[in-house]
Design brief:
elongated; mainly alpha; 262 residues; two-stranded parallel ribbon; three-stranded antiparallel β-sheet
Length: 262
């Protein structure tokens, strides 16, 4: 069953791939166009989304990153971005880069404005920081790049054992004996799996993690067109598409009643 919240949803592959993400508009600047879009029947809204996602860089990396971080900012207990930056600082060492928590926090802020995170060789500082962030939260970077990707969860039959072992066990003593090393969540779990392999509690081809599909609840695809000046014509085309579908729906007598719209 799909687990849905304000920020992202987790579920079976079919559920996630069929999930209709909510388009994010600016409540003030886009008042007229959002009013028309919200009145469109689901079939017409699907057409708008499909066209948006077919455009180059159809998803907004920075928007997805911002929404993802906001989810943890409003969680209980709260996890602030600065705290995340501090954890990244403790777990990454990039050759030739002098980094402080404040510097990393600024780079994360800058990343939230980027339309995309280009696939490079992974050597840039921001790519390293995003990789570390994903490892901390047990997600694949596709969730941020494309709005849909995989997340890791600890298998139910291992969760309680894992929590107990990181508190008081030969494994916890082993890890405490390595104070010079810092691990993100994924690295720590991989170390735990190595420990389980060594005591024959887990087969070497097994993992205590399982992958699940996830999708961001909201899409910033329309906002991306507004943000990049060289894509204003694409924004105008989407606005026209919404307007044309609105008029067709009006002429066909398919406008929802006020009661249905509320």
């Amino acid at each position: 069953m799909l687990s849905e919240d304000e920020y992202y949803c987790v579920g079976e592959e079919t559920e996630v791939k069929n999930y209709k993400r909510k388009l994010c508009f600016d409540a003030d600047d886009d008042k007229e166009i959002v009013g028309k879009y919200n009145l469109l029947i689901p079939e017409y809204q699907n057409i708008v989304r499909a066209v948006l996602y077919e455009l180059p860089d159809g998803d907004f990396f920075g928007f997805n990153l911002k929404r993802f971080l906001e989810g943890y900012k409003h969680a209980e207990p709260k996890v602030s971005q600065y705290k995340i930056s501090g954890a990244i600082d403790g777990a990454t060492q990039i050759e030739g880069v002098v980094q402080t928590v404040k510097d990393i926090d600024k780079q994360i802020d800058a990343a939230k404005q980027r339309g995309s995170l280009r696939n490079g060789d992974g050597s840039s500082a921001i790519e390293q920081y995003i990789k570390c962030l994903c490892d901390y939260f047990l997600i694949r970077d596709d969730l941020l790049k494309k709005g849909m990707g995989m997340v890791y969860v600890i298998k139910d039959n291992w969760y309680e054992r894992f929590i107990n072992d990181i508190r008081n066990s030969p494994f916890s003593k082993q890890m405490n004996s390595k104070p010079c090393l810092s691990y993100n969540t994924l690295q720590y779990i991989r170390e735990y799996e190595k420990f389980l392999y060594s005591i024959k509690e887990l087969k070497t081809d097994e993992s205590i993690l399982e992958e699940k599909w996830a999708v961001m609840t909201y899409s910033g695809a329309y906002q991306l067109l507004k943000k990049e000046k060289n894509r204003r014509n694409e924004q105008k085309a989407i606005d026209r598409l919404i307007g044309e579908l609105y008029v067709r729906q009006l002429l066909d007598g398919k406008m929802p009643t006020i009661e249905n719209h509320i």
